[in-house]
Specification:
Number of strands of chain B: 11
Number of strands of chain A: 11
Radius of gyration of chain B: 13 Å
Low-confidence stretches of chain B: none
Low-confidence stretches of chain A: none
Structural class of chain B: mainly beta
Mean pLDDT of chain A: 94
Largest interface: A-B, 22 and 24 residues
Largest sheet of chain B: 7 strands, mixed
Shape of chain B: globular
Number of helices of chain B: 0
Strand content of chain A: over 45%
Distance between the termini of chain A: 38 Å
Order of helices and strands of chain A: EEEEEEEEEEE
Mean pLDDT of chain B: 93
Radius of gyration of chain A: 13 Å
Number of helices of chain A: 0
Oligomer: heterodimer
C-alpha cells in the first residue's frame, strides 16, 4: 500500500522554464510534507516543507503547494537551472505515522 | 553548516560476511534514523532512535540486522550475515523531535557479491 505516490518517474524541462513536480498521498492523517533533492551517490538534501495549516510555502525559486481536499502537493521550480537536475522525493508524516517517501521523479533540465 | 556523517561511503562484501555502518548525527539532534534505499525507490525506514532508545524497528529484519546508539549520539548498523538482496544505499538521518524535518548523511553504498 503506497501512501505517497509520485506518478511521473521522469520529467524533462528547458532551462529557464518552470518545473512542476507532483505528489499524491492517501493517508488523511499526514500533516507535514517535505521535498528532498538527491544527486547520484549522495544522500537526500532537504529542500522545502509545508504544514497542513498552510496551502503554500515559498523559498527562493522553490514553491510548494498543498491541496488537502485533493490530497495533492506540488513543487514548482522557477526558473529551472541545470543544477536542478536530480531526483526529487516528496515525503509525508503525521500523527504516529513515520516519514513516508514517494518513489521519486528524475528531473532533467536541458540547456 | 552541520552535517550528518556516515562511513564508509562504499562497501563491497561477499554474502555471509558481516558488515557495519557508522553514523554521527548533527549535534543536538536527539532523533536518529537508519533508512535503506533500493534503486528506483524512495528511502524506507529501518530503525528510529530517540536518544539511546529504539522508537520504531518494525521494518528491521531482526534475524540479520542490528542497530545500536549506546550513548545517544552516534550509531552503528550491522548486518550479519549479508545476503545478495541487501545490496542498497543505507542512509542515516537525524532531526529534532519536531517538526519532522530530517537531515540525511551521504549514505553507504553496499554491494553484496
Amino acid at each position: 500500500d503506497q501512501q505517497v505516490k509520485q506518478n511521473s518517474p521522469s520529467l524533462s524541462v528547458q532551462e529557464g522554464r518552470i518545473s512542476i513536480l507532483n505528489c499524491d498521498y492517501t493517508n488523511s492523517m499526514f500533516d507535514y510534507f517535505l521535498w528532498y533533492k538527491k544527486y547520484p551517490a549522495e544522500g537526500p538534501t532537504f529542500l522545502i516543507s509545508i504544514s497542513s495549516i498552510k496551502d503554500k510555502n515559498e523559498d527562493g525559486r522553490f514553491t510548494v503547494f498543498l491541496n488537502k481536499s485533493a490530497k495533492h502537493l506540488s513543487l514548482h521550480i522557477v526558473p529551472s537551472q541545470p543544477g536542478d537536475s536530480a531526483v526529487y522525493f516528496c515525503a509525508a508524516s503525521g500523527g504516529a505515522q513515520k516519514l513516508v517517501f514517494g518513489q521519486g521523479t528524475r528531473l532533467t533540465i536541458n540547456p | 553548516e552541520a552535517e550528518v556523517a556516515q562511513s564508509p561511503r562504499y562497501k563491497i562484501t561477499e554474502k555471509s560476511q558481516a558488515v557495519a555502518f557508522w553514523c554521527d548525527p548533527i549535534s543536538g539532534h536527539a532523533t536518529l534514523y537508519w533508512y535503506r534505499q533500493i534503486l528506483g525507490q524512495g528511502p524506507e525506514l529501518l530503525v528510529q532512535f530517540q536518544d539511546e532508545s529504539v522508537v520504531d524497528d518494525s521494518q528491521l529484519p531482526k534475524d540479520r540486522f542490528s542497530a545500536e546508539r549506546l550513548k545517544g549520539v552516534d550509531s552503528t548498523l550491522k548486518i550479519q550475515p549479508a545476503e545478495l538482496g541487501d545490496s542498497a544505499m543505507y542512509l542515516c538521518a537525524s532531526s529534532f523531535p519536531t517538526p519532522d524535518t530530517q537531515y540525511f548523511g551521504p549514505g553507504t553504498r553496499l554491494t553484496v557479491l
